[in-house]
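ok so I'm stuck.
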Amino acid sequence: MTLGMTLGMTQQRHFKRMLINVQDGIHHLHIGEMEIWDGADLALLREGLFKLIEHERCRSISIDMRYVKYIPSGFFGMLVDWQEKRGVCFAMTTPQPNVQRMLWFRRFFQMGLDGLYELKTEPQDAMVAPNHGTADCLTETAAI
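replied:
not stuck anymore, here's the structure
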């Protein structure tokens, strides 16, 4: 990683084509304004996270997801793995609706007080449709 400039209390640097802002001990990762992340983007993110987590011992990371509409399937699993193995706290900016509808996102992320979606330590067990209570789901399931 190359050390960049310091803006007030924010340190800014680059890792390949990824911008990293460090503010108040939180590393904010920006890959750019791409709507679709492919395997190469996931590999870049994985490599950057490895350096931050293993070499720099970073434990608070947020990922800019404002523009992203599609994520490779391994993205969420990778974050959960780092969380479980290294105790890393992950958050992300509000993603596009496509990402918000993904099962992994709904099970593992919840809105935090700071407006970021935080990776939960325990996934939500059951997925219940927003307009149905548990009793309604059981009734509908039994009727099938």
